[in-house]
Amino acid sequence: MKAMTCHTVLGIETSCDETAAAVLRLENGRATILSETVRSQVEAHAPYGGVVPEIAARAHADITDQIVEKALKDSGLRLDELDAVAATSGPGLIGGVMVGMMTGKALAFAAQKPFIPVNHLEGHALSPRLAEDCPFPYLLLLVSGGHCQFIEVRGLGEYKRLGTTIDDAAGEAFDKLAKLLGLGFPGGPAVEKTAEGGDPARYKLPRPLMDRDGLDMSFAGLKTAAARIIEQNELSETDKRDLCASYQAAIADCLSRRAARALAGFEATGAKRLVVAGGVAANTAIRTELDRVAREQGASLLAPPLRHCTDNAAMIALAGAEHLAAGLVMDNAMSFSARPRWPLDEASALSDPVYGGGKRGAKA
Ligand code: KG4
Ligand code: ZN
């Protein structure tokens, strides 16, 4: 008979522009979120059209303790009633990651509980398990402002990166078009709104890498093509609508064609599942296309509720609790250093480092 397990973990997330804390209980594999609190910094970054690392770090430093305090209070638990404290320890904007990680370490030390450094990408990879029964294995398409990758989630700690963007993330591509058109930040929702009623076939935009094997993607050329159209024409409101619709359709097309190929090569023991997470998963045109290709492959599309698709602390607490339940706790976690880059699948990242240096996706 399997032993009953119950672990209650505080999770902290500060790797980009959300300060978040959550308390979660994992009981015999079922997660219950006891509390979750999130504060977005979107207004602080909006004037710059993107996340400014220094502003993010300072904003996290200002409120992480209050957010954690609120999450604990809302859970009705005291620190000493927790089994562990987990915090995103990379990859991400390093200033913010350090704030959350140091807060987590200090609380764990004070309460004499284990500290669990969590890979933010593992949090996203496990996020569908927050709400529903989502047994391993499944395919994850993570599409946000910082990530755009296909990951085969085989089991806890067993992640295979199947493909990734070689330049911009899909969310970044939306943000860049919004900036070019002066639609505001974050760009994705603004582009989606502007695209309503637009003609997705009006502008012929590129689908880079789609003629190549494998599952890598590229979105930088799309932005360049749109920039050229904007520079060379005086766009009317109808033109803008059509451009946004065409751009959105190009991204949906690239993601869904890659998803179809990923699903075709994915051998599942039971039902095939495609999970889409990340802020871009909010986009209806993209979801519709992913749903269509999933059905064609006899698979189902799962999209966690939006608050768990985007950055949140419940997924970090879940990753911590799953590690604890599996006995996968690091011995020297207190001396773990924050990692700006921390691939989930280290082996693939080493053998095929599609990401070079520079600013290509801080969270890659
Ligand atoms: O996951 P997320 O909240 O933060 C990270 O980047 O980790 O994702 C934010 C990204 C932004 O680039 C935003 O423009 C994009 O997700 N996004 C969308 C939509 N909502 C948010 N992109 C397309 N359509 C949307 N409705
Ligand atoms: Zn994220």
Short description:
Helices cover 41% and strands 20% of the residues. It is an alpha/beta fold and 364 residues long.
Any chance you could write out the topology, listing elements then pairs?
Elements (H helix, E strand, L loop, with lengths): L5 E8 L4 E10 L2 E11 L1 H4 L7 H23 L8 E7 L3 H18 L3 E5 H7 L11 E6 L4 E8 L2 E7 L5 H12 L5 H9 L24 H13 L4 H28 L7 E6 L6 H13 L2 E4 L3 H4 L4 H12 L20 H6 L13
Parallel strand pairs: 1-4, 4-5, 6-9, 9-10
Antiparallel strand pairs: 1-2, 2-3, 6-7, 7-8
Helix pairs in contact: 2-3, 4-11, 5-6, 5-7, 5-8, 6-8, 8-9
5'-O-[(R)-(carboxyoxy)(hydroxy)phosphoryl]adenosine (KG4) binds next to α5 and α6.
Describe this structure in words.
The protein has helices at 42-45, 53-75, 94-111, 120-126, 170-181, 187-195, 220-232, 237-264, 284-296, 306-309, 314-325, 346-351, and strands spanning 6-13, 18-27, 30-40, 84-90, 115-119, 138-143, 148-155, 158-164, 272-277, 299-302. Helix 4 (120-126) packs across helix 11 (314-325), helix 5 packs parallel to helix 7 and helix 8 runs parallel beside helix 9. The chain folds into 2 domains: 6-128 and 308-343, ATPase, nucleotide binding domain (Nucleotidyltransferase, domain 5, 2-Layer Sandwich), CATH 3.30.420.40; 135-303, Nucleotidyltransferase, domain 5. It has 364 residues and is α/β, with parallel strands linked by helices. The protein is built from 12 helices and 10 strands. Bound molecules: 5'-O-[(R)-(carboxyoxy)(hydroxy)phosphoryl]adenosine and zinc ion.
